[in-house]
Amino acid sequence: MKSFFSTKTLMLVLYFIAGLALVGGIWELVSWMTKKEIPSPHMTWIVFKEVMQNPFQNDPDYKGIGTKLFSSLGRVGIGFGLGSLVAIPLGLVMGSNKVMMHIINPIVQILRPVSPLAWFPLGLAIFRDSPQASIFMIFICALWPTLINSAFGASHIPQDHKNVGKAFGFSNWTYITKILVPFSLPHIITGLRLSIGVAWMVIVAGEMLSGGIGLGYFVWEEGFNGGNVAKILVAIIIIGLVGLLLDKCFTYLQKRFTYAM
Amino acid sequence: MIMSNTVPVPSTPAAKMANDVADKILTPILSDTSIQIDNVSVSFKTPKGVYTAVKDISLTVKKGEIIALIGHSGCGKSTLMSTISGMVKPTQGIVMANGSLVTSPGPDRGIVFQNYSLLPWMSVYKNIYVAVDAALPGKTAAEKKELTENNLKMVNLWSHKDKLPGQLSGGMKQRVAIARAFAINPSILLLDEPFGALDALTKTNMHVELLKLWNLDNREKTIVMVTHDVEEAIFLSDRVVVMNNGPAATIREIVDIPLPRPRNKKQIVHDETYMAIHDKLLSLLIDKFSIND
């Protein structure tokens, strides 16, 4: 009991509540200033409860918020998964081999600054299918952080570790599985964490282009067709919370695989 | 049958080559030479030009000998030892170990690095097993497990076998590194300032532990050790090789250590022979400093 209510935990909770109160206060102020055009926190809470009803309903005319959420998450999952499958090995190869680095890096540097949304029309041209084009867009933009961080990990293996492999005659496969990958793993996970953050942001924006039944399209609908600002705010909160959850998952993985050297 | 003591001097190039082969390859196999270093020079290409670390080094080490390489920082002692281990190729000259030319690291030469070099994501047990597995592919899994277990027990770390290196003290990590080198059962052990990062007390324990392990093996293993520590060099070795300063370092002098074994840490410092050797080595090392100033 004592450790749960330690001074440190109490202070952290207090700081968190203070932050919330500050945001809530500003929100209330903005709502008052715009004469309820921007709904107040209380009004938004009412709409939030309404939106959260029947979250997994999946009828042609009404799809619950849960259905929308999982629709978005599904596309992110596939795009992110495929992107990681490509980016991790490619990054490790790039990092280990100077020639490959010189070949691949310029291409990465040129393609990386391109806004992910610009890949959507290309995806449409290739797949002629909106959801698949969305996945393609996620795939492309999820590549870069993972690729770059994996390459960084693979190119920064300390000479000490390499010496162990050399001294005891590690085969190439042993070197890869027992030295290269374990050392690069924290860096790979950092890359994955950044990639999932980008992917989650992009799907919301991308769904405004592509339509469909995701959270991003929900924001677009309410914002440009419905006019129910409260629902937009609810969507924003949900998007933010999901993003936070995804980030926390990878932060946990990061901690798990970092070793005291 | 009476063997003539006079050998005719080889005259033709072919005869000379045959003589070289006999001298450098056959004789070591038949003799008790463990390591043979012949006119070895090591140079590196740097952005500023060619840097010669060591030049024209020749040294013969017998089986079961313990040799210390001593000298100032940067004098090329680690580089020289790297040519024996096979981590570095000599630019000139050859290095023979156990009768074969050294071209790359091999299971007949175990290496202990200055920075322990344990893989931090593997347990102590796995660190040793992976090395045994890679260096001795011919053995069965059961044999490898036995080697790992026995050597961990020899350094008294069996109870820590599942710990990660990050959970061990410096002395313990170095014991694991030594166990790893011993586990592949090499005939030659190469130690690069293995106790340099340890405190004085732990170092003292490690000296005794190393000699114990060497003894357990009937003093058959040849040990070459790079060190800065004069006392360590004298206590452990049969001969101390004093190097000149780099670059292009050469061997300045080889000092014999005729102290009987087993040596006792407390008693040895009062031994007159020890004190004489200690003085000599110090004057060799410090003497050079003042000249260079």
Number of domains of chain A: 2
Order of helices and strands of chain B: HEEEHEEEHHHEHEHEEHH
Rg from alpha-carbon coordinates of chain B: 20 Å
Give the largest interface. A-B, 21 and 25 residues
**Unreliable stretches of chain A:** none
Low-confidence spans of chain B: 1-5
Number of helices of chain B: 9
Please give the share of residues in helix of chain B. Answer: 25-40%
Describe, in plain words, how this protein is organized in 3D.
The complex is a heterodimer of chains A (261) and B (293). Chain A has 261 residues and is an all-alpha fold. Chain A has two domains: 1-38; 47-256, Orthogonal Bundle (MetI-like fold), CATH 1.10.3720. In chain A, 79% of the residues lie in helices and 0% in strands. Chain A has ten helices and no strands. The longest helix of chain A is centred in the C-terminal third of the chain and has 39 residues, at 172-210. The radius of gyration of chain A is 23 Å and the shape is globular. The mean pLDDT of chain A is 87. Chain B has nine helices and ten strands. In chain B, strand 1 and strand 2 (49-62) form a beta hairpin. Chain B has 293 residues and is of the alpha/beta class. Chain B has a domain at 33-102 and 189-194 and 222-293: Rossmann fold (3-Layer(aba) Sandwich), CATH 3.40.50.300. Chain B is globular and about 60 Å long. The interface between A and B is medium-sized, with 21 and 25 residues.
Walk me through the topology.
The complex is a heterodimer of chains A (261) and B (293).
Chain A: H1 7-33, H2 41-51, H3 65-96, H4 98-111, H5 119-127, H6 130-155, H7 159-167, H8 172-210, H9 215-226, H10 229-256
Chain B: H1 13-30, E1 33-46, E2 49-62, E3 66-70, H2 77-85, E4 92-97, E5 100-101, E6 109-112, H3 124-135, H4 141-154, H5 170-183, E7 188-192, H6 200-216, E8 222-227, H7 230-236, E9 239-243, E10 251-256, H8 265-268, H9 272-292
Parallel strand pairs in B: 3-8, 3-9, 6-7, 7-8
Antiparallel strand pairs in B: 1-2, 1-4, 4-5, 9-10
